[in-house]
């Protein structure tokens, strides 16, 4: 294979400090709104509505989320969302959480983010689906304004794969397509709930020239990735980490791709990789052993993401710095991940290009110039 694009860049030998990673422009495609609440906010909102929490103060609550999510099982990991979803059942609470999300991402150096959540999980106290999306958008707008326009944020609407509301949620995404919603997703426990259950929603979105990603190849292997791409037509893969099962490394170091892995790489299908989340759910052992290292070397369209900042106690800076420590990545590598992500965003082409040329490239150039 020829030189990696990152090798063409000046400064490719500099290993960045955590401070430099923090200041580097970062792009986030896979982040759950209900997985990123500030512990203090949960404590305050739970008190308002009388919801009982497993810990009383913000610090122990944060620890509870990280430890409970660290079980090695996706199903148990997902149980922790009961407490975040419980405090997201009225408009003002949702708007506050959405605003704080944008503030936290901007403070972390994220310049573009697609943040997802499942509207159907926020209607237990009588909000309509439309009101939920409106409340999130109000919070995002306030957060963007507070950040002085340093960040661009879009919503992705998720349907839960074990439920049967995906068509309704897909229609909601289309209704809001020009008002802050960039696409659609399905999430939830993977085993037993193949994405083909929601084929009508995906076909509708395709007819509408819309975009969607599918959580696939996280807890479950290649068949789930294959269905997501070849039956459902996913534009991107949420996690997709098990694509590594279709990659064989021979004893002499040569690498062979199976047909599915070859298709994913040939078609430049973006992988929304979330290292810390995968370690917690048992999909990977550690940063150093995460398939992201090999997939990056093989030049899959790899992107780096947080998934759930609360459950993983993480941020984009932490995920990227973890990779720097594990794989000796340089600023040029981080720039490569970031441009990959921006190219894969569900934003119109001209807007993606503007962020790459006016924000990402100059931001990395400044850091690389510092030496
Ligand atoms: O990594 C994941 N895999 C699958 N589902 C997830 C993951 N993280 C969060 N959710 C699910 O997505 C819903 C909407 O945001 C969350 O409530 C959670 O149930
Ligand atoms: Zn996710």
Question: Per CATH, what is the topology?
Answer: TIM Barrel
Low-confidence stretches: none
Major sheet description? 8 strands, parallel
Within CATH, the superfamily carries the name Metal-dependent hydrolases
User: What percent of the residues sit in helical stretches (DSSP H or I)?
Assistant: 40-55%
Bound molecules: inosine, zinc ion
- End-to-end separation: 28 Å
Average pLDDT number: 95
The CATH architecture: Alpha-Beta Barrel
Assembly classification: single chain
Number of domains: 1
Strand content bin: 5-15%
Q: Count up the helices.
A: 17
Based on CA atoms alone, the radius of gyration comes out at: 20 Å
Assign the CATH class: Alpha Beta
Q: How many beta strands in the DSSP annotation?
A: 10
Arrangement of strands in the largest sheet: 1-2-3-4-5-6-9-10
Order of helices and strands: HEHHHHHEHEHEHEHEEEHEHHEHHHH
Query: Which structural category do the helix and sheet elements fall into?
Result: alpha/beta
Binding site for substrate: 32, 34, 188
Function: Catalyzes the hydrolytic deamination of adenosine and 2-deoxyadenosine.
Binding site for Zn(2+): 30, 32, 215, 307
Enzyme class: hydrolase
Describe what this molecule looks like in 3D.
- By secondary structure, this protein is of the alpha/beta class.
- It has a single domain (5-370), classed as Metal-dependent hydrolases (TIM Barrel), CATH 3.20.20.
- The chain has helices at residues 18-23, 39-49, 58-68, 74-79, 81-86, 91-107, 129-146, 166-175, 199-207, 222-231, 259-266, 275-281, 292-297, 309-312, 316-327, 331-344, 349-370; strands spanning 26-32, 110-117, 152-160, 181-187, 212-216, 236-239, 247-249, 255-257, 271-273, 302-304.
- The strands form two sheets. The protein has an eight-stranded parallel beta sheet, with helices on both faces. A two-stranded antiparallel sheet has the order 7-8.
- Strand 3, helix 8 and strand 4 form a beta-alpha-beta unit.
- Helix 2 (39-49) packs across helix 3 and helix 16 packs antiparallel against helix 17 (349-370).
- The longest helix is centred in the last third of the chain and has 22 residues, at 349-370.
- It is globular, with a radius of gyration of 20 Å.
- The two termini are 28 Å apart.
- The chain binds inosine and zinc ion.
- Zinc ion (ZN) binds next to strand 1.
């Amino acid at each position: 294979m020829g030189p990696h694009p990152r090798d063409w860049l000046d400064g490719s030998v500099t290993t960045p400090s955590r401070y430099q990673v923090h200041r580097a422009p970062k792009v986030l495609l896979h982040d759950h709104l209900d997985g990123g609440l500030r512990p203090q906010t949960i404590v305050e909102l739970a008190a308002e509505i009388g919801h009982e929490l497993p810990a009383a103060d913000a610090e122990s609550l944060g620890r509870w989320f990280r430890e409970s999510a660290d079980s090695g099982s996706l199903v148990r990991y997902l149980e922790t969302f009961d407490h975040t979803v419980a405090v997201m059942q009225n408009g003002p609470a949702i708007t506050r959480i959405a605003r704080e999300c944008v503030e936290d991402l901007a403070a972390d150096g994220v310049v573009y983010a697609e943040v997802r959540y499942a509207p159907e999980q926020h209607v237990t106290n009588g909000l309509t689906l439309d009101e939920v999306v409106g409340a999130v958008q109000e919070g995002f707008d306030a957060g963007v304004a507070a950040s002085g326009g340093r960040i661009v944020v879009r919503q992705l609407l998720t349907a839960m794969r074990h439920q049967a509301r995906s068509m309704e949620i897909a229609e909601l995404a289309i209704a809001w397509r020009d008002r802050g919603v960039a696409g659609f997703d399905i999430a939830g426990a993977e085993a037993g709930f193949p994405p083909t259950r929601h084929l009508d929603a995906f076909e509708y979105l395709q007819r509408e020239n819309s975009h969607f990603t599918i959580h696939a190849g996280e807890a479950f292997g290649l068949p789930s990735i294959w269905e997501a791409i070849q039956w459902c037509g996913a534009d991107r893969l949420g996690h997709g980490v098990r694509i590594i099962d279709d990659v064989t490394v021979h004893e002499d170091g040569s690498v062979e791709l199976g047909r599915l892995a070859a298709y994913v790489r040939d078609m430049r299908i973006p992988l929304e990789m979330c290292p810390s989340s995968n370690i917690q759910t048992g999909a990977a052992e550690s940063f150093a052993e995460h398939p992201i290292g090999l997939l990056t070397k093989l030049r899959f369209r790899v992107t780096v993401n947080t998934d759930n900042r609360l459950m993983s106690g993480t941020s984009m800076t932490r995920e990227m710095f973890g990779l720097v420590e594990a794989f000796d990545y340089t600023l040029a590598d981080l720039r490569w991940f970031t441009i990959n992500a921006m190219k894969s965003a569900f934003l119109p082409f001209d807007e993606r290009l503007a962020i790459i040329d006016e924000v990402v490239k100059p931001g990395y150039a400044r850091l690389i110039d510092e030496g």
